[in-house]
Amino acid sequence: MQAIIDFIGTIGDFMWGPWTFFVLMGAGILFTLWTRFIQFKALTHGVAVTRGKYDNPDDPGAINHFQALSAALSATVGLGNIGGVALAIGVGGPGALFWMWVIGFLGMALKSVEVSLAMLYRNTDDPDNPHGGAMWVIDRTLGAKGGVFKVLAKILGVTFCITLIISTMTGGNMFQSWNVAALTDTYFGVPRVATGIILAMIVGAVIVGGIKRIGNVAGRLVPFMCILYLLAAFAVLFKHIPAIPALLLEVVTSAFSPEEATGAFLGGSIGWAFSVGLRRALFSNEAGQGSAPIAHSAAKTDEPVREGIVAGLEPFIDTICICTLTALVILSTDTWNRAPLGDFGGDIQLVQQTDDDGNLLPVWSVQTTAGIEALPAPANKEAWEADDAIFLVAEIQGATRQKRGFNRIQLRAKITQEEQGSPLMIVWEDLDPHGRADWEGSITGATLVDPGIHQSFDGAPLTALAFDSAYPGLGKWLVTFAAWLFAISTMISWSYYGEQGMVYMLGEKSVLPYKLLFLVLVIVAAVWITDTDDMERLMDLGTGAMLWANMPIVLMMGYIAVGELNRYFRRLKAGEFQPHAAPSFADVVSGKDVKKD
Q1: 508-520 pLDDT, tens per residue?
Q2: Would you say residue 109 lies in a domain?
Q3: What pLDDT sits at residue 80?
Q4: Cα–chain-centroid distance for residue 335?
């Protein structure tokens, strides 16, 4: 299994090479300038459209603009905002947030274009159940030329759908289940398998109803969970108001200078912060990935690009608002570079291993006679429990981590228990630097930085720790509850995305087996994935593959969407579209404003 994950990591690293950043940044800048900064139009006209002022029950589609935006946001506003941001800050430092802002702003233009394209070429043969996405765009543009172009379009469409399924099963499903299972186990001791089964049952009950049920659930769930989470974040930041200006300055300066290793943070270069920020921002807001157009294609409208303008709000809400608040909570509470819990209470040292002939190997083992009693108390509970994870910080001599630009690495251990009632034990992993990171130079040694023990908090548990440090118990209860809501909302929307890919490739009969596999993987991820690096590799494979399948289509056909957007705004300025009185918010949320009498 580990060999497979390592191979996946190799593919993901290639997909996320320097060229990826140039393509994304370049496309975002191109469409920002080409659409004359559509970001600002999304924040004005897009809000009016979402409010229901242009809704019409007679337009083709299944759900109104607000529900379509909510369905897309339910996929983006998820554990990427809790766990993904924590990974970005914990691994990349404060500078990662700056690059998340940049990608969020440019992503507003990119998403407007890709959703407009999907709306222009969506399949409305059944007006109440439309289909859309990059596969339909390429099929109805390049494929319409016939002959070899039709074959090429089919290949590109199927390729996109395959990457869509990969991303659905990894980031849209397994990452969510893994984070919720870890968080619930950390705080409440609920077995991971139980969390997986409960999640699968809840998600299964929603996705059997199709896009209309998903839209109804998302329309109610997304506003509630966003408001709840934002209120909690503001409560934490209120306690640290004097520090906020300095934190924002550090975010900007850290984006353009290396961040030194301190506490639990292992250090990071400018390029590392950029890379991590871009990956996590893309995973969170999905701009350029091609997923959101599938949800938006179900919107009721006879002006296709109008939904593209609405879609521009997604990266703003997701990345610039919610991700920023999460990051500031983590930064203001100093949980990202937290000090050790305390020193290990016994002798501990690293011993280099040798082969059968006595030759030294670049692998080190922990040597100590002390056990669980030598550990300081954990940060978030009274005593250590089985499956808790800890680490020491080690320093490698003679080499530097290529990606980070520094030479520190975690020396990990896990608290284990052979059977119920037996004593707890510490099981230390061997320190094999070559197996965990790429190094520049020749490794000549490894030493412990100090005997300070760090409790391992990866993803959502780190965010929960940040809330707890401000208001004890807030992270335990609110972040766990929010994580469940975010995960469920993300999984139901992503299940629909994958479903549309299956329909395009294999037809309606493939949907049921697909949904069963989706629900099985919910349980698999909750139980068997325990390593953060493994989860990051799976996430990066899904988002990277889908990005490279979608972006060529957007770049080839984007001029069509830009032209339609510009024509739409000329018509709007000329007074061709007259908004009606906004319906009640309750009717917009429930979709009653577009229901036919």
Answers
A1: 889 889 999 999 9
A2: yes
A3: 67
A4: 20
pLDDT given at position 532: 59
- H-helix segments, 391-510: 433-436, 460-470, 474, 480-506
Whether 185 is in a domain gets the answer yes
Q: Looking at the domain assignment, is residue 405 inside a domain?
A: yes
- Is residue 152 within 8 A of residue 535, CB to CB? The reply is no
Q: Which two tokens stand for residue 215?
A: 């839209």
Tokens of 336: 């990202």
Residues 322 and 422 in one domain: no
What sign results for the dihedral spanned by CA atoms 119, 121, 127, 128? negative
Burial of 528 (0-12, 13-18, 19+ CB in 10 A): middle
- Identify the CA nearest to 86 among candidates 278, 258, 403, 330: 330
pLDDT tens profile 566-581? 999 999 998 888 888 8
Q: Does residue 362 share a domain with residue 316?
A: no
* The predicted structure's pLDDT at residue 597: 58
* Cβ-defined contacts of 139-147 (< 8 Å, 24+): 141/557, 141/560, 142/556
Angle between helices 210-238 and 192-207 (to 10 degrees): 130
Tell me, rounded to whole angstroms, the distance of Cα 460 from its chain centroid: 11
Q: Stretch 66-76: mean pLDDT, rounded?
A: 79
What single string gives the DSSP state of each residue in 122-145?
Answer: -B-SSTTS-B-SHHHHHHHTTGGG
Provide the terminal-to-terminal Cα distance of the chain, rounded to the nearest Å: 55
At 353, is the secondary structure helix, strand, or coil? strand
Identify whether 522 is part of a domain: no
d(CA 55, CA 302): 10
pTM: 0.81
Name the residue range of residue 419's domain.
344-456
Query: Which has the closest alpha carbon to 129: 66, 210, 64?
Result: 210
